[in-house]
Predict the structure.
Amino acid sequence: MLLAQPAIEAMGEGSTGQTELSRVKLAGMRLRLPDSEAMGNLRPALDVLEARGDQALAESRDLGHLRDALLPKLVSGEIRVREVEKVVEDAT
């Protein structure tokens, strides 16, 4: 599929910022797909990558919440960086 991406992008039509793909042109494309054995062998690796991606998204979300909670307190002087560092050190 990745090898077909440039060809698919080149099929885009339209000039108003609303590029569309022709269903007829897409239907006429021939894509090479792996056989069922190759797909079965690939699935475990894809599962690992998907789990890593999910973990990274969750971590990013958690860090965003932490930033949103700490930043106003740091800017206002309610807490200091050293205090936050101490809390983090104690937690680990």
Observations:
- The chain has two domains: 1-32, 34-92.
- The radius of gyration is 24 Å.
- The CA atoms of residues 50 and 56 lie 10 Å apart.
